Amino acid sequence: MKVLRVPEATVSRLSIYSRFLERLDKNGVTTVSSNEIAKGVGVSPAQVRKDLAYFGEFGTRGVGYNVKDLIHYILKILGLTRSWPVILVGAGNLGTALCAYRGFRDRGFNIVAVFDNDLLKIGKRIQDLEVLPVERVPEVVAEYGVRIGIITVPQSGTQGVADLLVKNGIEALLTFGPAVVQVPEHVIVRNVDLSIKLEILTFNLAFRELHPSYLFEPKG
Amino acid sequence: MKVLRVPEATVSRLSIYSRFLERLDKNGVTTVSSNEIAKGVGVSPAQVRKDLAYFGEFGTRGVGYNVKDLIHYILKILGLTRSWPVILVGAGNLGTALCAYRGFRDRGFNIVAVFDNDLLKIGKRIQDLEVLPVERVPEVVAEYGVRIGIITVPQSGTQGVADLLVKNGIEALLTFGPAVVQVPEHVIVRNVDLSIKLEILTFNLAFRELHPSYLFEPKG
DNA sequence: AAACGTTTGAGCAATATTGCACAAATTCTG
DNA sequence: CAGAATTTGTGCAATATTGCTCAAACGTTT
Predict the structure, then answer these.
(1) How are strands ordered across the β-sheet holding B129-133?
(2) CA-to-CA distance for A101 and B194, rounded, in angstroms?
(3) Testing the interface with A: which of B198, B204, B207 to mutate, by most A Cβ within 10 A?
(4) Which tens digit of pLDDT belongs to each residue from B115-148?
(5) Hey, of A87, A194, A204, A209, which one would you mutate to test binding to chain B, going by the most B CBs within 10 A of its CB?
(6) How would residue B219 be classed by pLDDT, with cut points 50, 70 and 90?
(7) Nearest CA to CA, how far is B64 from chain A (Å)?
(8) For chain A, what percent of residues have pLDDT higher than 90?
(9) How far apart are the CA of A59 and the nearest CA of chain B, in angstroms?
């Protein structure tokens, strides 16, 4: 088998394609071309085909792609043909918001427990979950077979929580804020930093005014 | 002046560098090398120098960079030597969490008003702000000179809100969730899609197990 | 069943981004 | 002050990613 290097951007776009396709499917569309997908999500048709080509041949020449089939293939690639138990550490504003976020459940992510070490928060109910003390992480991870953790604690606590989760067998982490966490090789970490996103906006607004001759690359 | 194309990844990294440098500054560090920055944030030293080189020469050969100065230069590049008034539309869980998010205020983003069109939410207090009806967007934008809007409404409402904000002169938008919004050329839009981030994790967990020979590119 | 229009998949070209290596500039040391 | 040790800034090489083009495959029409 060919050894390929799949760009992370491709994985992100697959996620986007799949949700666009699900919308089409709901509207009764059965077949779609790379052109229509491209128009729908704002990329080039060649990009769509290239992205899919990393993983196989899913279309029919002269016809296009079967919508239901393609959804299934992409979800399979993304590992979403099953449900994933997820734990969340940090029952603050952001953690609470994420617990209520429908988008996670829609894609098969199931937040099975919320943890905090603040006595004021422990015992509180968020959605249908009770906030647990972090000491109970091992027990919950074992019970549900959790492999994914979301960390929404303040920056200074992020590394400590990451260490705790890794020690308990968590293999993938989603962190928030500017913290850079150190984890063993086999653990996958991705980060969401909302300030960066706003600063990309201000860069465009402010810097390009001062230097109109600079060009800037969109995307992202 | 040279006309350059600044990669968005460079802008993101500048944001990261600046926060790392602020930590150093707080600890009393006055001088830093590209090597130390690189170690601190997990990139290559050459990358750090290249990123800075897009905008000028900020270091001294044989010495490194003056921490305070470099912070100032980067903040200037990112347009953060001033405060930015921001409006937020969508007073749900996520919107509420973002209003309370310290990271925004720390970087000079000032959420001056929160809007919703849900009568149950209008009038509610979030932090020290009262939730306003969307009809009052024009007034607030004019009063504060707002150029940036954050949209945290459900997917189906995102395009409508974007249209409203653009009509009222907003030039940059941060949206959440899978919605793809259409805006005029001059408006800058960036999107945060939390499901994508989780799906990058599941892709790694699931797909690579099935196809161990595939390699995968980190970053992002 | 042949001709035509469509659309995929893939090779190749074009761009973009990152990494390497080293001259130039600076400080330090003796 | 000459030589050694750093460390930046940058040209060039190496990779990665995206875009272009077209043969091959399919359906439709006549």
Answers:
(1) B125-126, B129-133, B109-116, B84-89, B148-151, B172-176, B188-192
(2) 10
(3) B198
(4) 999 999 999 999 999 999 999 999 999 999 999 9
(5) A194
(6) very low
(7) 23
(8) 90
(9) 21
